[in-house]
């Protein structure tokens, strides 16, 4: 069962919010979507790193 789960997850980003799955897509799809919670998080983190 674990091997099957690993194949399903490999290459995907699973984004959780308070324990609830909110996004499950390949990296490129999430980063290309302007409304993606994952992209918004990435952009906030990038600003923080650049300001240090």
Description:
- This protein is of the alpha+beta class and 52 residues long.
- The chain has helices at 2-9, 27-32, 37-50; strands at 12-17, 20-26.
- It contains three helices and two strands, in the order αββαα.
- A hairpin with a 2-residue loop joins strand 1 and strand 2.
- It is globular and about 35 Å long.
- The model has no long low-confidence stretch (mean pLDDT 76).
Percent of residues in β-strands: 25-35%
Task: Average the pLDDT over all residues and give the rounded result.
Answer: 76
Distance between the termini: 44 Å
* Anisotropy-based shape: globular
Rg for CA atoms = 13 Å
Short description:
The protein is of the alpha+beta class and 52 residues long. The protein has helices at residues 2-9, 27-32, 37-50, and strands at 12-17, 20-26.
List the keywords:
52 residues; single chain; alpha+beta; two-stranded antiparallel sheet
List the helices and strands and how they pair.
Layout: H1 2-9, E1 12-17, E2 20-26, H2 27-32, H3 37-50
